[in-house]
Amino acid sequence: CSWSDGQVTTPEGYKDAYQLFAEGGWSGLGGNPVYGGMGMPKVLAAQFDEMVCSASLAFTLYPSLGAGASLAIDAHASDELKEAYLPQMYSGEWAGTMCLTEPHAGTDLGIIRTKAEDNGDGSHAITGTKIFITGGEHDLTDNIIHLVLAKLPDAPAGPKGISLFLVPKFLVNEDGSLGESNTLACGSIEHKMGINASATCVMNFDGAKGYLVGEPNKGLNAMFTMMNYERLFVGIQGLGSSEMSYQNALEYAQDRIQGRSANGAVQKDKAADPLMVHGDIRRMLLNMKALNEGGRAFSTYVAKQLDIAKFSQDEHEKEKASALVALLTPVVKAFLTDAGLESCIAGQQVFGGHGFIREWGQEQLVRDVRITQIYEGTNGIQALDLLGRKIALSGGAYLETFLGEVRSSVNSEDEFAEELLTAVDKLEELTRQLLAQSQNDPNVINSACVDYLNAFAYVAYGWVWSLMSKTASKKLAESSEDQPWLEAKQITARYYFKRILPRFESSAAAALSGTDELFTLSPDQF
Ligand SMILES: Cc1cc2nc3c(=O)[nH]c(=O)nc-3n(C[C@H](O)[C@H](O)[C@H](O)COP(=O)(O)OP(=O)(O)OC[C@H]3O[C@@H](n4cnc5c(N)ncnc54)[C@H](O)[C@@H]3O)c2cc1C
């Protein structure tokens, strides 16, 4: 992207690609049908999201921010605002943004300074500077709808004093046509490590006209409605990148000849054998395959819980699904993106030196996926959310709901029944010990949470791998259709249990190691 005098120009081809995307109706895939959305469930949208992320993470961010903003508007805005904005957002004619971060306030949104003053005509004047705003300005759509967090003059301090406002780039006339420019501008764009085709903007709001979304001082609550969707989506960004890395690496490992198989030459007519014959190359490919397919199954399970929480008519079922979403969303966001980086690096490694060279595309995947571990709440903050809020504050109730689901799905004749149930018991015990430690040491939760999240995720992936293996066995017994694919599922499941699940042990040991060493060094001893 380039910036000149407040205007952002996206790379060549982006306008055409965006146009095609919007014309296909994809912008409104999960949108409310009352306002022109397609009303598709998240389980379906999650599969689509992954494919678009594999194709181009930077591109995907433009339409996805609009989809996220629409979700918040649909859940919290007045009918008037919904009617005026949602149809054009679902059609992709207008894009959206989320304006939370300020120079001094990233993780800690309670200290934002952007202010909102009542204009006395149903609108507010928004003044302040937001940074790092994805798609804050671009040339893909006629209008950009910013959702901005700001503080009213009498707002209480901290997170309970934040309100949410809809602030359009161009004001919208009563007949729906575009009116004058709002008093806001893109001051510059960032020069970044990756996703360079996504405009990351400094946005200056100078008394810009905005409309309250939801209740005053309840802005963060309104954002939380979409937070679980957004965080699931960021996890899927990690997965999409990782799947691309795997497919590239697999093709390369089959084509590139180098060295001979330890079992004797495989391609005797050639000077060397394909990379695929080497154990270490297979290790990297299988790590990627096991993490990708596990991540896909796990995130689809969470997407299904989001759908149940939203659409079910059964209150008990809704409540249970909401608890599972609350517990598992930070795990999806953090673990799929961490695994995404691991797999992008592994894919790059399969390419050897060529992985470091720009033309092959692998180095771009490594650079692009890195942001997914940082934005939408860093992975450290996700881990804190999991252990500190979702587990400790619920007194372990959410965890018990999840472990109940896992245990009730296991039959004694399942291939991995014993390993899985043992891992579940260990996770329960790890949680119990950490919560006990935290009673005497206030630093335990923050110090242990990342290792705990990893331990949790290895068990959760074990569960979905066990389910996939069980389904594959059943299908293999029923028919020979898709046999190689189903057998590959079973073998990858075995690989997961033998070579990846043991990582649980080191994560658990690190989580339980206490905080003495962490807090004994003085700042100048670091
Ligand atoms: C390319 C890009 C796109 C972005 N898009 C958007 C967007 O569209 N809209 C938007 O509003 N923002 C956006 N962001 C901002 C992003 O969400 C923030 O950068 C992120 O939330 C972290 O905030 P920060 O950078 O201020 O880091 P800080 O909050 O300063 O954190 C620094 C480090 O300290 C850690 N930390 C902070 N507090 C704690 C704590 N209590 N316990 C333990 N560790 C802690 C963090 O995990 C992190 O490792 C984007 C950022 C980038 C780089």
List keywords for this structure.
526 residues; alpha+beta; Butyryl-CoA Dehydrogenase, subunit A, domain 2; Butyryl-CoA Dehydrogenase, subunit A, domain 3; seven-stranded mixed sheet; two-stranded antiparallel ribbon; 15 helices; 11 strands; globular; binds flavin-adenine dinucleotide; AcylCoA_DH/ox_N_sf; FAD; oxidoreductase activity, acting on the CH-CH group of donors; flavin adenine dinucleotide binding
What does this structure look like?
This protein has 526 residues and is of the alpha+beta class. It contains 15 helices and eleven strands. The strands form three sheets. Strands 3, 4, 5, 6, 7, 10 and 11 form a seven-stranded mixed β-sheet that branches. Strands 1-2 form a two-stranded antiparallel sheet. Bound molecules: flavin-adenine dinucleotide.
How many helix segments?
Answer: 15
CATH class of the largest domain: Mainly Beta
Low-confidence stretches: none
Q: In terms of structural class, how would the helical and strand content be classed?
A: alpha+beta
Integer count of domains: 3
Tell me, briefly, the overall form: globular
Assign a percent range to the helix content: 40-55%
Q: CATH topology of the largest domain, what is it called? A: Butyryl-CoA Dehydrogenase, subunit A, domain 2
Strand element count: 11
Strand content: 5-15%
Keywords: FAD, Flavoprotein, Oxidoreductase
Domain Acetyl-CoA dehydrogenase-like C-terminal: 402-521
Organism: Capitella teleta (Polychaete worm)
Family: Belongs to the acyl-CoA dehydrogenase family.
